[in-house]
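Now for a chain:

_____
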Amino acid sequence: GEVNDGDDANQNSHANQEKEDDDNKHKEKLGQLQGKCIYHMNALFDGTLAKYTIFEPRLLTNPCSHPPECTAYYLAKLSMLVARVSSASVGIQLFTSREFCYDNLSSGVYSNAADNLEVCAKALATGNAGLLDDISYVNSCSLSSGGIAGEGGEDQNSLKDEDAFEMHHRTEEIAVMSRKWLRAMSATGRKGDAHSDDKDAGFCSKESFASMLQNLKPWIRVHISHYIHLFQHLLAPFRKSTWQSLMDAESYDFIKLIWCIKYSMGMVFLLVISVYWPAYRTDFVLAADDDPMKVVYAIQNGGWTMVAYCFATTQTAEGTVKKGLLRMAGTVTGAFSAWLALLACESSTFELEYNPYALVAWITATSFIATFIATERGFGARIALSNSFGFGPIYFVVTQILIVSYVSMIFGPESRDEVIVNRMVANLLGIVMAIVLAVIPPGNYGGDPGHTRKINNFHWHSVQTVVELLISCDDVADELLAKNIQTLDSLSSKILRKSASMQEITVDFEKDAARLQKMTCFKVDPRIKMEIGKITRDIYVASFVPRLAAKILKGESRLLLLEKNGLVQQRLKEIRADMANDGIAATSQTTKENFHLPSSDLPDREGRDDIDLLLLTIQWLITEMRGHNEALKVIGVNRCGVYQNFNSK
């Protein structure tokens, strides 16, 4: 008997170990999927992917029957929609992973949306818009946008009613935009297509004219966007909010102002000494005293110094240092390659005393090698050059072409060495000045976690505002109810708009600073990128909170939400006290994590579930925001190889 008991115990232990291993594998897989969603959500945010293809309309696809459409517009919309679905997917996974009995999330109502997304993915991967005919639509609004109604209307309407995250609506938008993008990518078969709005569209039709205007928009915007951006900045000093933000330590606007002042002072200094300092204007040159071109070299050197300073300076200290080093490397190697080309291709048999065919061949071959080195591998090769070291090969190509052009077409072989040396020295001086000004404090560091913390703090204050508004409406007859509903709707839009703007700046700063990550000095902590991705996910969740609260206040379930001294109001007051007393810096949780209303309190299950979801989402966001704050505290800023942490504030 003892032997049998021992065997049973061993079997149970083995079974428990296998179950634990399976659970760990499942959690690992979920973690990988979540990380993948966050990565793509961050990459696709605000249509970033489409920015690289803005000048890639399909200009040669059946132009006689219909002008091509601008694919970038549809790709931008599509990438934003996919980012939002990725965010909702992560939110659903996070909620279902917690032991919370929320009927809508624990049921299989999202299987239809998952099937539709899979169909869209296959259609986009193969370029076959016909696959989208298999999608069953739930939202009737999509029918007018090119969708196709599926069968089983009652079942689908019930899915629509139970979809708290509006996953079906978002999926249908992706399906509609996928069809539009696939049609824009290939004009073949559009005319007369079953789902086309322009079956009889000719080249001079109204639809063709609209398509032509759509193509012209990106080109027109390029020429006027800089003036619009400049005009907006000219108005900034006249806004009260601008001066108020300079006094806010968390806004980083003061540091940005100092950064702009330092850059302007450097440019003004170089301009002033080029005009008013005779010794610099005439003697900043490497040439013999009797060289007739000495004055020309000196004037050019002053201009090249300013150009190098201008283009070596970026929006962050780390980015300026690293781009400056890359520009130095590109300038020196490009100048050396140009010297070799001019030396090898010199020939008195040609009018310019250089063999133009040999020069073209040399430049073509070396530029190809440099471009290949600077190009990302895999799918990234279709988008842009390497963010890490792409500037080095770029300036190699630019320097080589300029020197070869100057010497072969203007100065001649006798000035070859002087042109190359002066071009190098002038550029190196401007680059060094940009690097020196960048490291002089205060500096705008892209690896500073404060930029990310700024978004997190904004979400914290927004959630606090929602909780305060819901508590202030503790009476159904409150005259402020309608005003609070409007405030909540506006707050949801504000979170999306303001957070998106801050997120874009933060991502740009991190991307600019993260060049040459193998370089020990000014290395950006890789954890900052993951935190940016997580907070990007929180943008949609944070905007979802006031929108859901407004929806509850508009419906019958507000009776339960606004019941004075009721369970919901008590819970909200606990959350308010927790946020006010402990703040975002708290590491412990003082409120109950899982709160669930008894089903008897409200006959409307959907309303009860909405309130449950609202409270859970608020509590989850509080936990997440405190986790982000804790993670950002330990991330330091790398200044000259030394991490410095100023995050105790």
